[in-house]
Amino acid sequence: MAVRLSYCPYRLLFKRPFGTAHGMRDGTDALFVRAEEDGITGYGETTLPPYLSETISDSITLLGSMELKGFSAAELLACLENSPDLLGQNPGCRAGLHVALLDLFGRRNGRSVRDMLGVEDSNSPITLMTIGICETPEVAAALAELPGSGALKVKVGDAEATSRIRMIKQLDNRKLFLDGNQGLGGIQAALDLITVVGSDRILGFEQPFEPGQGAEHAELAQRSGVVVFGDESIRFPADMDGSAGDFNGVNIKLMKCGGLDRAQAMLRAGRERGMHIMLGSMSESSLGCTAMAQLASAADIVDLDGPWLISNDPWIGIEMAAGQLKCPSTPGLGVAPRYDLEFISIGS
């Protein structure tokens, strides 16, 4: 029986305006993908912030133009994994479709996607919850909305970053992980923020400078002794042979790399290079974050806090318990719709 694909456009809304060095936004456009075969359904998610060149409209067009011609789910998955050019320039779209197919197979075979990928559930990574760029008086309310976690991620790159960090330190005793989103003006600016956090509280620093500033990232790691994670500089598995040399950590995201197969390849490559491994997201719902959480026990740090930052999450999936992520125990991803969603069949 041929696999049937459908999609559902959706706007994920933040509980409060979410600020990064890229700007402030109230939500993120998403596309949920459904794959059906033999009465079994799998789901995936494509969520794309506005600063990316790829758009949800692109994904709808690509999915609608796919010539399935009676392809089974297994044949389509093989095409995705063995044909690098298939949706290769649209990693978010590929990730949504790839995850939906894996979810379908897991449900069919009564196995979790984590088990299918061969990930041992033996490690408990540090979990992050994010405080976005905001006015310092808003910090207390933002903290109150977040569940307990191993550490806090703090978005920086604005004029109020120092006062925001100091306020967080007054109100909370967790370690802090700084995220520059390429917005820092130079090495000294990054070093100053690390000093404000303190050597006893700093957990890491993510992409303080633009991708072309590899030498600056390497120097910051050397001078500060802090793990500097590459995000925008390291998108695909191929980047692990180049830009990864400028960092001692990597943040892997489904929407950047294009699927769980590529994320796992990057994770393995990072381990071979002795890098710290972080699993991130682009504020996906519980669907996308539960998908990435299948690899969580193979990572050092997990930043999958989208479900706690958005107000209209339409999925039930991962949970937090005693500061640790808890994946559903049911087959596939284990996610379920919170309420009915209207899917559009491809070709209709």
Polypeptide structure, described:
This protein has 348 residues and is of the alpha/beta class. It has 2 domains: 4-111 and 339-345, Enolase-like, domain 1 (2-Layer Sandwich), CATH 3.30.390; 116-336, TIM Barrel (Alpha-Beta Barrel). 32% of the residues lie in helices and 26% in strands. It has 12 helices and 16 strands. It has helices spanning 56-65, 73-82, 91-109, 113-116, 139-144, 161-171, 187-197, 214-224, 254-257, 260-272, 286-292, 306-309; strands at 4-20, 23-37, 40-48, 126-131, 151-155, 175-179, 202-206, 228-230, 249-253, 276-280, 301-302, 315-316, 319-321, 324-326, 336-337, 344-345. It is globular.
Outline the secondary-structure elements:
Blueprint: E1 4-20, E2 23-37, E3 40-48, H1 56-65, H2 73-82, H3 91-109, H4 113-116, E4 126-131, H5 139-144, E5 151-155, H6 161-171, E6 175-179, H7 187-197, E7 202-206, H8 214-224, E8 228-230, E9 249-253, H9 254-257, H10 260-272, E10 276-280, H11 286-292, E11 301-302, H12 306-309, E12 315-316, E13 319-321, E14 324-326, E15 336-337, E16 344-345
Parallel strand pairs: 4-5, 4-11, 5-6, 6-7, 7-8, 8-9, 9-10, 10-11
Antiparallel strand pairs: 1-2, 1-16, 2-3, 12-15, 13-14
Task: Describe what is shown at a glance.
The chain is globular and about 60 Å long. Strand 7, helix 8 (214-224) and strand 8 (228-230) form a beta-alpha-beta unit. It has 348 residues and is an alpha/beta fold.
